[in-house]
Amino acid sequence: MKKALHAAKANCSEKVLKEDLIEKINDANNDIAEYEEDLLDAKQAGKSDKVRAC
Is pTM beyond 0.85 here? Predict the structure, then answer.
């Protein structure tokens, strides 16, 4: 147990957690940008009903 606790404390710092959250936010922002681009393309083609659901 002590070994596991030590490993968890060593690998679970605020910096690491913050970096993970920033990466998740960036991934979500990329997904949103792709969706918005797909939506714009579909609207221009008159096919907004063909846009994938989030």
Answer: no
